[in-house]
Protein 1
Amino acid sequence: MIPEAKLVPFPSKPNSNHPISALWKQHGELIAALSGGGLTLIAFLLELANHPRAWLLYPAAYLIGGYFKTKQGISDTIRTRELNVELLMITAAIGAACINHWLEGAVLIFIFALSGALETYSTAKSTHALSALMNLQPEVARLVASGRETMISVKQITPGDIILVKPGERIPADAVITDGETTVNEATMTGESVPVFKKSGAELMAGTMNLDGSVFARVTKRCNDSLFSKILDLVQSAQKEKAPTQLFIERFERIYVKVVLIVTALMLFAPHVLLGWSWSETIYRAMVLLVVASPCALVASTTPAVLSAVASGARHGILIKGGIHLEQLAMIKLIAFDKTGTITNGAPEVTDFINNSTLTDSILLRRIAAIENQSSHPLGKALVAYTQKICGHVPLPKVGKIKVKPGFGIIGCAENTEYMIGKEAMMDAAALKEFLQKNNLPRSTNGETLVYAASEGKIIGRFSLKDRVRDSAAEAIRSLNKYGIKTVMITGDNQQTAAAVQRESGISGYIANCLPENKAIEIKRLNKKYGHVAMCGDGINDTPALVQASVGIAMGAGNDAALETADIVLMKNDLTKIAEAVRLSKKMSRIVKMNIIFAMAMIVFLIATNFLQFLTMPFGVVGHEGSTILVILNGLRLLRG
């Protein structure tokens, strides 16, 4: 037990943000829009009262209400050297003022500024589930050394350090508990809301919440190398990466704005010359055209929807690195799965044990486990784990004369008796035949690995081991089949093992005896056949295939290289989340298409009614900005998943 430590505080920086400046930074755009609207309303009421100087309030409404949008439009134009929607709106408002339609211009600025503020809020809301992760990283940790507890920056923590985590504190680094037990809420990392009990030897993840116990833990990774830090990096890239539809609309917007300005310039004189409209009516209709032809709703049809979908996925343990990957996922026809660690748990487990010795199961298992405990082989670890499961954490006998035979097994002495534990090729042929006949056993089993135990020239036991299929695999395959998505397993195992896993998981097909370097070749072949293929894996040997696939999906507990290469990460290793991601991608695709069609239809309708001289500027503003708000709200539906 580590003695109680003395605390040395870590200096914290005071918060210097002034409440007023913080309020303006967060709500300034909305305050300016409402102030401009208020000035417009007062000016309108004064006009009704025939006040001679009522019009003086309109320029103030223009300046205050249009400040943010004008600033944004000018800065974006200077930065990109391209015209934009904001400049169209400001030009239309100034044009309305030039023909003495101050009220219409002020109403335009008010509604445009208000919709812009609402769009800013909606974007902030849709990214909140992602950006909130940034606040979950603790800045300090309780380092315990030489009986003293010191608060240090998490950036100073190194692997091997002992830290203390108290109830109600976030875990500052990836670590392993050395003393104590507690319950940890891992929802921030896995999406699972049920707290997990942790005791000595259990792993802790940075960013998760320690609930009810104080624990000492040994740090295993530096701050920047923790899974939490990697997730933050992925989140930042996800927010910056744009979907193909979004990129297309942005390119379309630049061309469209120029076309609108050219058509508006023609509208300034063509109807007067060709149709006999008055100059006042001609200029007024040109200004209305500037308003209703602006592609605000079209521009807003994708971004809120994409960010909302990515945020919803993050809340449910699906880390999506950008909208482009969600769009690609909606078109997937086939998903290829790695076997070990993806379809299966990745670690062999004992499924059957036969004891032909004169010893009890408990005594024989403890002797075998004591010998296998000297080996680092996965099968040996599985035998030790099985012994602990059957016998509990009882002391193991002392062993000696250990000799490991790589690729075959291990030999050692326990309780003055020599035991040989290993594969069939290590056993005497006659002893093996006698053992199989005595127990009426076949020479091979259905996809299981067999480990024999021999002593004094006789085989006294056999273990059957199997890498079990994940509990979520079969359900995930069924869900993907409902979406019309085919599934295939790619494995280096033989045909018999692959067929056994296929039967248990329900996967559509398999490619067996596939070397790691050939996985990418198989994915390339499947891409040509099906058009769009996803790959799901967990190891470094899966990374070439993850890159080759249209969408790469990694298991959250997988290798770091796989996590960084993949486009989507399943934080809780739950394969059913793939079907959830597919559903989310298809829903996002439907909403984006719906928004684009609605936005285009509204623009065409407003332009047509303007040419027919039915549309006034206030109604044009309401129709244009109202459609923008509707597509934003439609996109935000994805926050519910």
Protein 2
Amino acid sequence: MCGIIGFNFKAPDHSAFLNIAEYRGPDNVTTRSFGEYTFAHNRLSIIDLTEGANQPFVSACGNFVIVFNGEVYNYKEIRKNLEGKYAFRTKSDTEVILYNYIEKKEKCLEDFIGMFAFTVYDIKKDTLFGARDRLGIKPFVYYKNERQFAFASEIKVLKELVKGLSVNHEAVSQYLRYLYVPSPNSIYQEIKKLEPAHYFFYKQGDLKITKYWDSIDSIGLNYDLSEGEILDKLDYLLNDAVRLRMIADVELGSFLSGGIDSSTILYYMAKNSNKPINTFTLGFAGADKYDETSDAKKMAAHFNTNHHEIIIHPNVTDLLPKMVHHFDEPFGNPTSILIHELTRETKKYATVALAGDGGDEIFGGYPRYEAALLYNKIKFVPRLFWKALNPFFKLISEDISGNHKLRRVKTFVNSLSKPVDEMYEDWIAYFSIKEINTLFKVEQDFNRVVLDVFNAIPSQDLIIKTSITDLKTFLVNNLLNYGDAMSMANSFEVRLPLIDHRIIEFMTSISSDYRIKDGQTKYLMKKLLKGKVPDEIINKPKLGLNPPMGLWLKNDLNGFITTYLSKKSVEKRGMNYQFVSQLLKEHNSGKRDRSLYLWSLIVLEEWHRQNLN
């Protein structure tokens, strides 16, 4: 896990581009130039800790240079196929990626199992190749005008290299709708994100971007497999995904919540280790409803792990500016603060940890998948019926202490009067289109990315459509985004075996009936773990990692509300103070849970203050 940088123009005088994101890779910071191009690398050493594996890395022939962020876990297997043709100088995956590209060009991407963002520069042909992993675990942002091209792992690096950036107002509206800025947009008009599963070639102003993988290509390929065959195949894939992600030359562990995802990972880690696994569990003040430390202790004892219970007391007042700084653009999921603190504390014991991100999307863990099943049963009821019920459900007050069930029920009933794509978008969205227009006093024209992705999936199976849409939108722009930003802020690497692309392909290829079956979410995972972990772990209800927003808004964030959501601040940003005031009243009265709406506005104001004054 590192930071990569490259550009084909002279850096501004006294530029700090090389050190501005040094936390991504404090072990080595190097810059080298080749013709018009300059490449730089911030290295966090994980595999092959020697100086010879530092980057930018040049091929033995001297014609190619690579900068790479991430891990290709099956690099040893790929290397075996290359050793007859190339003289390897290191034991790193970086060198394997470079020679595999020289051997196969863009076809090399088909071989890689892992997370990556990298570029290879062909010096003789003056051609730059770049790629991002299939799920978008590692970030890649770029800037292009008629003559200049620059890329990096973080927006703040490009801000240091190019001047005159302008705010992307479409991205602001998208942020308020989804709590993140979806790729390929960024908060700046001139900076784009390379989308997951895409590669590019750039030469003398010409940029060509191509998609190289899509989970939709696997839909229905193994629909006729029996449950026994499915379990056998899934067992193999999970075991191999975890095994590969345990390769490291530094101390490694696993995040353990006591939930089904992290328990699955621990089970397979234990199978592949001859020593106790390091496990790390997060607990925090005010989180009684979401406390899983006791369940994590049961799992740790069951597998005799070297267990660490990390209890944090996050100071949101101090952490909010840090969070906004590391995201470079508005980001509205407050769980990111907890991940920042978890990785900061875990760094005292290890440099790498496996985590269960993506398990809900792949195996059917979110309440919205249960909602999709329910919709299938009642979709024949006329929409006018649900529209007539909406006014009555709006009268029901919501729980603002952190229990989202009532809010979800109200959202679900309200959405039933809409077309299915808009229904799904309502389930995962926050500010409505009407509310965004009211907030800015004018109609906001922006691309509703989630709708577009949903409608492009060639399946009538609502579970498959929602799951793939989540993978392409919510997972990459939300969970993977904060996972990378917050862990890298602490020079820490997080590995995600449950979203190994082979597992995604397989789960997409079988019937969605196996995601939720016999009233059980994550049916296949629970079936696999039966008899291997305590039954209370398998049968426990889903909790999730959520901060105590109700408590934060009353205490830590009260000062931010007073200043950041004041009439002066709100109107300075061209927003409607009367509407913001109404949000506060609704929340404080308990009528509606507006915690994340208010949080997103606070974050937006903090971003303005850090970047635009």
Protein 3
Amino acid sequence: MKRVRPRDVLDLFTRIAIIGIGLSLPVWLYLAELRPRFVLHRTEKDLRALAAACDQALRSAEATEETRAQLDPAQAARLDLSLEIGRLPCKSYSVLTEQLLSEGVSRHALAALNLSATSDPAYPDLRAVLADADQLDAQLRVTSRLFDLAPLPLKEYLRNAKFRLGERLFFDPLLSGQGDRTCATCHVLVSATADGAALETHLDVSPEWLPGVPARNVPDLWNRDHNDVSTMLWDGRVQALAAANEGGLVSPEPLPTTGFENLMALQSIRPIIIPAEMLGEPGAGNVLAPKSLGAPLPEAVLTRLATRLYEDDERGKDTETYQRLFRKSYGVGAAEEVRPAHLGNALAHYIEIAFQSRETPWDRYLVGDLSALTADQKRGAVLFYGVGKCAVCHVGDVFSDFGFHSIGVPDMREEKDLGRFYATGLAEDRFLFRTPPLRNVTLTAPYFHNGQGKTLSEAIQQHLNPYQFARAYAEGGEHLMGSTEIDAISPILAPRSMITDAQIELLIAFLKSLEDRRADALSP
């Protein structure tokens, strides 16, 4: 047997070591170089999107900081919440970068990728998937907590006598002086209680009977019984300064507000007593306003209306008479016992029951159905409450602060609409208009007080660029907007917006989730 020499053993171990080093070198290279590159490549799409979203939020916060002192405390508080939600991607970005660093990715590589993702002001990387379903739901849980979000509270859909009375009044042409108009003439059911036109259509009356404000876009009637609703009309001339039972309702017409249950009740009867809306030209032939001299007295008009309704009962057109409905609703018998508040309260009761947002994906989501929203709707919701800053004004269950702001909407008409000024007479209120609620907004185009926004995309673009018409010229060669109009633009909109076109589509997707699925198929 051949003797094994120590040198042979050493040579064998040397060869094994060389082979081992040769085999381990690729593994070492993979761990040291290739694996971090692979890990970075695998997560690059998410990392770039998070970097861009975080950069967008930080730049937006920086630009907004200068305007904070011009906001009222409530707006400033909501702005802070929006900025906090906007920065949520920054936390996710930080977590992801720390994870990548622990897996060997270099800081230099991460910095280069961040610079690439944030150098384009259009943020092309935001078109990438920002978060998976679980991350989106987690962000919306934070949003819900910060903004105290809850589903819209609803009344029971009960067709009692008061409801039936209000419903019949809503569709009855006898409420108009010439018997040719109803509430549904302007609040058209197939247009989701708006009318689909840019401006309301006034009756053909003498100039002396025209309202003192320019024609406006017809507002919808959704959820107007909600406690947040503190003003009616684009300029808030009908408003609740305190509870109705405390005498807190205010209207420009000389009509006592005693007995009206809420703001909607008071607003409901106003078109009946206004010549250009439902009353018509006062004078011979007008059953409700037979005298042509002097402004028609609201109580006199409404007293004649009650008599007219009772007289119509005698013609036997309806099996359930007005007399019976008023008796069952209020315990009143004769026509002279019917008060203006009885009419307004019945109309408001019908409106607040019939036009509630009962079946919306957003409300289902808020009660725990996470599948109620699509991924894009969830992304849009995060944008709406976050970097879009929409909820600074469009807040609460019905998405309005019921305050008054200008977003730079131009008025092409010779007689410019002065907005809130008509209610207060204060110079600083010129060109300010009430924040419109947003439920079913996808069904009620055109938009703004003068119907200037034809599509929802145009309406959002106007918010993002409120100064876009500041340098425009009218047909006569003069500036379309005067300095007073430009100065009135809300400071919250002053900083340059960084919302991309793709994000506008996400916002529209979210607004679609506020749509009642019955709203585009209403029938009397």
Protein 4
Amino acid sequence: MIARAALRTTSVIRQAHEHLRRGHLPVDLLDASIGRSWQRCLEHGLHPGHQPDLPRLNTLELRQHRETHRRLLELADPLVNQVAEDLRGCQLLLVTPDATVLKSYGRNFELSERFRIGAGINLDERSFGTNAPALALIERAPVLVNSCEHLLFPDNPVSCVAAPLFDLDGDCLGLIDLTFEADHPRPEIFLRRVQQLTGALEQRLFLRHYQQRWVLQVHASLAELDAVSSGLVAINDEGVILAVAPQASQWLGQDAVSLVGRPIEALLGSSWSALKRQCERQSALLGLELTGGRLFGRLNPPDQWQPAEALRIAATQPVLKAHSSRLDSLVKGWPSPLAREARRAARALTTGLPVLLQGETGTGKEQLARALHESVGGKGPFVGLNCAALPESLIEAELFGYGEGAFTGARKGGYGGRLVQANGGTLLLDEIGDMPLALQARLLRVLQERVVTPLGDHREVPIDCRVIAASHRDLEARVEAGEFREDLFYRLAGVVVELPALSEQHSLTETIRRRWAALCQRHGRELALDETLCERLAAYDWPGNWRELEHCLEVALVGAEPELVTLTLEALSPRWQRKLAGSLSATRSTMTTEEGTETGHQALRDLEQAHMRRTLEAHEGNVTAAARALGVSRSTLYRRLA
């Protein structure tokens, strides 16, 4: 007989508490793991409302405990810290196998005046009752403990999820707990997130241990081949299987014991020596025809590659820092919330997530795309396609490629297309909002399946590239108008970066000086920029954004008389003299007016900001939904909250 799953709603658990007060443990109302925990707690003499004295390490003991568990801390700390930055409003705990909190990240929750969860506290079930870290250690599986399922705290303001982390021998290294507000409507989202965390860390352990060996990644979906759900197989130089991660056993349909020691050729169906020659310099995609279906694989040579989810997230911070100078320079004058999103996009691109750039014409979307490509190490080519610059009849062939003789005028031997050209690198789909609807459907399939079929050809060509899309149009508005596919939008909008207009950026005077110096160096000219002119340039509205500013400065430089030492307003063309003549005085007049009514305006700004923050909280931090409710754009909401 199949056991009925318990309804884990607040009302049901409150019924369970009522039964317990009457002396009966209602296991039929509880999730099986929660029921077992409540039973153990009762046997330990713990009851709802009991106020335990929780063991807590002092500073010296905590330092010694961290030294003892240095391996866990070094493995998990970078990744957990990064996730905590993304999940503001949550608390993450790194916990040892004896249920001691090694480190706390993010928000600090208090269950009551007496109980504040933090580093050094011990969450053993015998002291603290039912809680996610203790239960995950006992069950050796990911768990969710909703607010009132915490036996000792029926009115707990938080819920928590936890997942254990196992080493290659199956021993528990520790676990990760994620605590969040109890009224969240979908706690399973956090459970999946913590499972992804431990999965990424277990991948990293495997790859670190076998970094001098060949490693095969396997998955049923090409799109998920780099995800934490992919399986890993370690192979020695002779082609013998050394180890099989648990996820790989599931995909391959065989347990690890039966696979270890066998030649990999039995799985791959190809000569090992030929595969080694093919993959000795870089990873290669493979199609694996196995009993029961087809799998995708990627064979990686020893010590020459970075694992996808495990190391791309946790170990790329030094890489990002080393290659972020151009990105930092571009976002230096941006409003801080928008600059933060640009840096988040760099981290997301490293993991293989797509990035969408939105901004007015001339705001520098292509420059930002190149900076993001460089921020992930600049690996592979950077390939761009402007979807608005080609007629509809040519976009398809240019993007997907074509076979020989596919149409009149097709080049001999065919053409691989931009997607194939970008393999191993980054593809920029500029002005994606202008792509015809029919091609949007085909692009969506390619991005999902990671396989492209050129026009007039039957071959399926695997692709592996990072994707950045860009548009000056509001894609969400085009989705609502039926002019852009909703499913493609959500496929592209992994992280959305809204580029500010030039007039919205601060420190514009400094930016103009820096750009002027770079142009002087490029053209081999020493020419000073007059301070008054610089102020006028900074005060101008720049409707054409960066493109207009760049054009203005470069034309002024190359057109200046050879004997000129300092560029002033009078040295510019009559057109630009007219444009800039009133910019500084208008700005000063506005500033004077604002100073006269500063107190009133500030009060209004404070009220507006408070209303915006309340709206954002009501929509659980969803900026798009909050902006829609307020009737403003996302960039306006970001700017006014900065």
